[in-house]
Specification:
There is one protein chain. The chain is built from 1 helix and 8 strands, in the order H-E-E-E-E-E-E-E-E. It is mainly β and about 110 residues long. It has a single domain, classed as Immunoglobulin-like, CATH 2.60.40.2630. It starts with a helix and ends with a strand. About 15% of the residues are buried.
């Protein structure tokens, strides 16, 4: 019995929530952006777009919870941020990926 239940106390589950990823460009310049999300097993999500200046758009949904490395590449320059996608009771949860005026990236 112990062998069967040993993995149950691990990280949060894979499919708890519908999560919209909203890419927000606060810069006054268009940018080519690729978002890649990885866990200890490797790449689990990838989506990329060209986003116009001072706009936002939805990327493909990401429906996993737990701690992940989020790599955001803006015009060829990459930033990796460790982010915890938490479970929520909301039917749809939005996680913003923002590009500021100086090209820095935030996830939240």
């Amino acid at each position: 019995m112990l062998v069967v239940t040993a993995g149950c106390s691990g990280p949060l589950s894979d499919t708890d929530t519908s999560r919209e990823l909203k890419l927000v460009n606060q810069d006054n310049t268009d940018h080519a952006v690729v978002v890649e999300i990885s866990d200890e097993t490797g790449l689990v999500y990838s989506d990329g777009r060209t986003i116009e200046a001072e706009t936002d758009l939805n990327l493909a949904e990401f429906n996993q919870t737990g701690e992940f490395d989020v790599k955001v590449t803006v015009d060829g320059n990459s930033t990796t941020i460790t982010h915890t996608f938490e479970s929520t009771d909301d039917a749809i949860h939005v996680t913003n990926i923002g590009i500021s005026n100086d090209g820095t990236v935030r996830v939240g």
